[in-house]
Structure formats: C-alpha cells, structure tokens
Write a structure and sequence with these properties.
By secondary structure, this protein is of the alpha/beta class. It has 2 domains: about 15-130 and about 210-290, Rossmann fold (3-Layer(aba) Sandwich); about 135-205, Hypothetical Protein Ta0175, Chain: A, domain 2. The chain is about 35% helix and about 25% strand. The protein is built from 11 helices and 15 strands. It has helices at about 30, 45-50, 65-80, 90-95, 120-135, 140-150, 180-190, 210-220, 235-240, 250-255, 270-290, and strands at about 15-20, 25-30, 50-55, 60-65, 80-85, 105-110, 115, 120, 155-160, 165-170, 190-195, 200-205, 225-230, 245, 265. The strands form 4 sheets. A 5-stranded parallel β-sheet has the order 5-1-13-14-15, with helices on both faces. The protein has a 4-stranded antiparallel β-sheet with strand order 9-10-12-11, covered by helices on one side. It has a 3-stranded antiparallel β-sheet with strand order 2-4-3. Strand 13, helix 9 and strand 14 (about 245) form a beta-alpha-beta unit. Helix 3 packs parallel to helix 11 (about 270-290). The protein is globular. The relative contact order is 0.18.
Length: about 300
C-alpha cells in the first residue's frame, strides 16, 4: 500500500436502505410499461416525458427512473443510507449512474461481492468462496448442465456471472412445459436454486444471498434498522431478514402473492411503483434518523 493512500472512514448510521435495482428501483423500457394498460404505447403516455435515463448500454438508453424517484434517490444518497443490492455483475452495476453522491457500499452478484467505494472487499469475497465450496456443487458443474439442457430453439444465450452463478436468456413461450420445474428440482438437489425473472432464468447457489452481504454492511456501519426492497425470489431472504420491507406490485414475488410480516406493497406497478419504493425507503430512513437525533432545548 502506498504511503499516501488512506483507509476510508466508514460513517456510522443507525439505518440503511438496501434495494434491489432492476424492476425495483430502476426500469428498462419494457419494465416501465408494467404499470400501463395492455397494448399501451409508452410514448403516448405522460409517463414517457417523466422518465430520466440512469443507464446507457451500447450508446442507447437502457434503464430509467421517474423524475420524482430521481429526486428521492438523490436524498437517500445524500443521507448516506442507500445500499444498492443487485444480482448484476460488477461491470453491469458500474454502468448505472444513480443521482447524488455514490453509495459507499453496494452488493453485487447477488451477494458475491461487497463493494466499498466501488471496489470489491477481499475479505468478503474470500468468505463467500469458502461458504459456497462447503454448501453447493461447483459452479463449473452447474454451468455445464445449463449449456446441455437449454436448447437453442428457445434459448438466446447462456451466461455465467463472475463464475458465481449462471443465467439463460430464454423465449418463455417456446420453453417446453415443465422445464422450469425440472431445472428447479435439479438445482435444489445440487445446493442451488432457480429464479425466473422476465426473460432470464437464473441458477444461483443457495448460500449466495444478498441478505448476508446487507447484514455485513449493517454491522460495519452500526445500523440496527435495515429497510429493504426487492421484486424477485432472490430478494426474499433479504426482505425477510430486514426490519421492514417493501416489494412492487409486479415481479416474481408478486406473481406468487409472496408476503412476510410487516411487508409493504406498492399501489402501482412499473416505474411509478419504483417511485413509491424510493419514497418509502426515504420516509423510513428519515423516521429512524429523526428518532436517533438528539434534541436540544431552546
């Protein structure tokens, strides 16, 4: 370590707001339309003019938030409480530009990496590697299985994510009946789990969990309150272990009517649901911060 490099100081906060990104806080053009009537043209709705791009990919806008969500996310980052918790790889996460100061902590690869000021924490990565080696079949075995059973007639691509988990981009309407259940059963027998999100079918080790990484962030910053938001089955454990949680009125959890004690559900789907999630996180964080701020007499 060079002599002029200093160890970053971790601010102490009584609360963190851990949020999934895709289809929870930010939305692709397709996901934005989840809250619109079937067949509605996005460009002909007031929502279209209200969207702000937060991610570019191949010189084209990919992910968006509403203007209200943009302002709310800015406040969350200015408070220093937002912890993005995503299944995205590190490279995919770094494509996103959230408003306000960059979050000090972020969770990527479904808990595989704990980023501190954008850099993977080596101690956390080593801990994850040890746990996965002890609890699940190796990544290479699962990767080989996916390449063998996902057929090109209905699979656009099979990808690995940082050699931690795998996913396939599929045409759902063309998949054989019972295929998802078959893959789910195979994964369960090998210490992995399956999750179908939009056009992607993920296979993820059982112990590769966002909630574990979020708990580590809470420990480091001294937070005794964890607020959490997510839309998929991969988020369920993070929501269950949080002090309070919210999910949108769309997505994998909504499709199975998933609930847990104290869970809030947005009134709207799509990007306006994401707007409500951001506001719920901000309101909850403010309540805790106000509660913990010493009051002085006049």
């Amino acid at each position: 370590m060079s002599g002029d490099r200093r160890t970053p100081v971790t601010p102490v906060t009584p609360v963190i707001a851990a949020s999934d990104l895709d289809r929870t806080l930010i939305y692709s053009g397709k996901a934005v339309k989840l809250g619109l009537p079937p067949g509605a043209k996005l460009k002909s709705t007031p929502l279209y003019e209200d969207l702000v791009c937060v991610e570019m990919y191949k010189d084209a806008p990919l992910s968006h938030v509403t203007r209200a969500a943009l302002a709310t996310i800015t406040e969350l980052n200015e408070l220093g409480v937002l912890v993005p918790a995503t299944t995205r790889t590190r490279a995919q996460y770094h494509r996103i530009t959230l408003p306000g100061p960059p979050p000090q902590y972020a969770v990527t690869a479904n808990g595989g990496f704990l980023l501190v000021d954008g850099v993977a924490d080596a101690a956390w990565s080593a801990r994850v590697a040890t746990v996965l080696a002890e609890t699940s079949h190796p990544f290479a075995e699962v990767d080989g299985y996916m390449h063998a059973v996902f057929k090109p007639e209905w699979t656009k691509k099979v990808r690995s994510a940082e050699d931690l988990f795998c996913y396939a981009v599929v045409e759902r309407e063309k998949m054989p009946d019972g295929f998802v259940e078959e893959v789910t059963d195979w994964a369960r027998e090998h210490g992995w789990r399956a999750s179908l999100q939009g056009r992607k079918l993920y296979l993820v080790p059982n112990e590769l969990r966002k909630g574990s990484a979020v708990a580590e962030v809470a420990r480091r910053v001294g937070a005794d309150t964890v607020l959490a938001a997510g839309d998929s089955l991969l988020d369920a454990e993070m929501l269950e272990s949080a002090t309070a949680a919210i999910r949108p009125a769309h997505g994998e959890l909504h499709d199975v009517s998933w609930i847990t004690p104290g869970l809030a559900i947005t009134l709207s789907a799509g990007a306006t649901g994401g707007e409500q999630i951001a506001q719920w996180l901000l309101d909850g964080a403010r309540d805790v911060l106000d509660r913990d701020t010493p009051r002085t007499s006049a």
